[in-house]
Amino acid sequence: MKVLLTRWHALGGLVALMTLGGCATLMFPTSEPAPGKVHPAAPVDAAQPAGGSAKPVSAAAERSHTSSLRPFADVIRGATESPGFFPLWRKDERLWIEVPRERLEQPFLLSVNVHSSVGERGLYASQMEDSWVASFRRVGNQMQLVARNLGYRADGNAPLQQALAQAFSDSLLGSTPVASAEHPERDSVLIDASFLLGDISGYSTRIEAAFRLPYNFDRNNSFFEQSWASAEMSTLNVRMHFATPRIPASALNGAGSASPPTTTPDPRSFFVGFVYNFTKLPDEPMQPRRADPRLGHFTDAHTDLSTDLKSNPRVHYINRWRLEKKDPQATLSEPKEPIVFWLDKNIPVRYRPAVEAGVLEWNKAFERIGFKGAVVVRQQPDDANWDTLDARHASVRWYVGADAGFARGPHQSDPRTGEILDADISMADVFTRSSRRFFIEETGRSSQERLAQLTAGWRTSQRDELCHYAMEAAGEMDFVLDTLEERDEFNAGSPEAEAFVQSVVKDTVMHEVGHTLGLKHNFKGSTVVKRSQLADSGYTEAHGISGSVMDYNAFNLALKGERQGAYNNTTLGPYDYWAIEYAYKPIDRQKEAAELARIAARSVEPELAYADDYDAGGFGGFEGIDPLANRFDLGDDPLAYADKRMKLSQELWQRVQVREPQYGEDPVRQRRLLLSGFRQMSRTAELASKYVGGMVQVRDLPGTSSRRTYTPVDPAKQREALQLLAEGLFSTDSFRFRPEFLSSLPPDYLDRSAVGPVSVPDAVLDAQTSALDRLLSGGVATRLLDLPNYLGAKAARAISLQEVYRTLQDAVWSEVKAGAEIDRLRRNLQREHLKRMTVMLTRGSSSLPPDALSLMRYNATQLQAQLQRAAANRRVSIETQAHLQDSLALLNEALKASMSRS
To answer: Start and end of every DUF5117 domain (predicted)?
Structure first.
């Protein structure tokens, strides 16, 4: 996720105030943090916002407004001052913000981060949240906090700037009466900070989305915890109370849509801690750098209407830290100000070395472009009284939640230029307690459904930009560790297992730090390493197992008897060096356009393959069409990896069924291992089905390459994928389990997350239906029907939509043609296929082309004839006879039904 942020300068004479038991306590820093990166505040005309601001109130007019107000000195009598960007005054529970006249209408960065929260359904602690370029506007005796509109600009075109100011509004974040007359010497007024004890960030909407209950903000029981200020920033920590008068009875028995929190002592009440940062923007805006679509960086975008000559007025500035050499002439130089990451004191000591190693790994990329020690790690002292969520510290923090499994690497930037000002990585304790608690009973639910539940309290933009690498990587880690343990190659708690876990933490931190440096996901990074190289331990130890740490890299687990390379990624890949070079290489302004074009033109090199979340699919509603752009695949042949993952699941199942459980071990261990294998089967379904109707996509700009943007997947590869699904995923033989094993899988009787025995048919169907949905989708049908247009003279070799439909139907209904018995697993699959067929026959689909509907009806009539013959067979079981007759009846009704096609 990308948001806006700043870093701090130095605490100097910083004084912080903390309310303890209703008393105001002076707090001095126990240690002085080393200075981070600092820039002076930005002039108002650096990037004129589109939404107009009222003209500053004149001194004479302001004096007339304030004549009836209490004198400044009277209001703060007995209060203690924290001098800073906006001086803060505190007396007991009261807190005032001093607003100098010179700061009125001047932009600053306002950020609101979440220090503490509920601990479930997306409402977690240690999260970087919203930010705005804001300013204070005085209207009479009212002070408004206004978010400035920077989305539309016309720099250098004064008349059009006036039009934009009239066309596009600013937003009001909050307002409060002016609390004092103007100070005669300081030329400033006071405002009561209690207006911040309100829902400025809109958190109550997220609470309602999570629990489906109208929790109201309770101002009377909300309060300021701490406050401190420096020359660059003023920060206030607040504790906000949310409550609802009653929980509906329907919510208690699960009958209604409401679902109260489960983590609080009383579900009617909870507190959320917010950190408000008022931060000075750079006086001299950083030179922006334009984005290039051939590689992936987060951006700040705006619409530039300063000229009519642009066909596309959208401008994208990449997000990057301001990094400048101390010695511009030196080949290798330290930066003027390094990028400093603070390790929060809440990180378990066990993991701090791995976290530090993951952060510092990025120095390898910066050294290649001439920076020594560009990234620095510092540990927050255990007795420190400052919060790493303030705007002075880029940080890595740990957080705990009842269902938390995510790591996030958000950052905050100056939207005028794209300069990253701060970042706060949040790491869930998913590695401390492992991810196993998430996956004990997950049958019947897709990964997207699981994510939807866990992020119920997140905004749409947060879910769209979600990085769930940590949770999925931890699940993959457990699968590998369990398989190795079943092979007697690893023992739980052994030094080898501990080193393995530490390497996974380092890998995840490298990934999230990449986000905070401005890099997006690269879901083609894993495809640049050959399968033969993955089996080479020497190669993988030196170069890693993927071309990028920004991919969701799977674990490199060999089949039994194969050579074993490194299990997971340990270092940066070629793409990571390339992306850092584009963003951070020092370039003379006059030569920048040409040099950036030269760097980006390397996109044709195979090891720099790139694809983002949209290309991989499942992001913003987009269907991924490129089978080389995936989450959690490995090697240059994702289809071969899918087949290997299926075999590894079957190996795990075979081993766990013959192993006798030992007294004292986890009682749900075998149950968990069974379902862990099914998660890998779902991965197989996703990877293999993507080949059918797939198009390999490359990102080239006009005139930069002879490559075609879209290349259909080779027909032979598409047919191979179809066969893998037909003979593997859709086959009963892939899911054979001993009755003694299935009857010996208890739930956790002390803390039930599962009730009753595991339903293997449900688990099988969960994996199979994802493949069915993909193969019968409108997107696949359209691309297969369009395929001859891309192949020209080679169109005769193409795989047709009818071949896909017929192959799928024959695989699903093979027993009908053979007159054979149909077991329950196969009956379930056939019902799901028939359900989709009848929907297409009776309701049609706006996403399916007419030819697809015609072909589906043609194949349905063929199936109807087969079912008629099979239904007369009395040599099969009564269950099979009933299934055949029911299927035939449903199909007959569907074929007779009238349908209105638009």
So the answer is: 131-326
